[in-house]
Amino acid sequence: MEVKIEKDSDPVKVSLVGRLDTNTFGQFEAALNELFEKGKYNIEIDLKDLEYVSSSGLRVFLGAQKKVSASSGNMVIKNVNDTIMEVFEMTGFLDVLTVEND
Fold this sequence. Notes:
With 102 residues, this protein is an alpha/beta fold. It is 38% helix and 33% strand. It has helices spanning 25-37, 55-70, 82-91, and strands spanning 2-6, 12-20, 42-53, 74-78, 98-100. The two termini are 23 Å apart.
């Protein structure tokens, strides 16, 4: 998986490419934690090129949402494909996350 970050934008744009699973969730989590350490809590996550998300990946989204909310920030997830959307729906994550599809 690849994590692309545009740190100079506001909100910070994060794009995920590939599979977010047990082997790759740490990379995504570390990238988000680096942003939080720098006080960046307005984040837009683009999932256009994300093929798969496992429960490990879902935990990263949940943890990030909690940190963003606690800091009065805003996290928006964009361009979610049908497969990932179905996972968000089945797990109840659509009640917790802000998802916007163009």
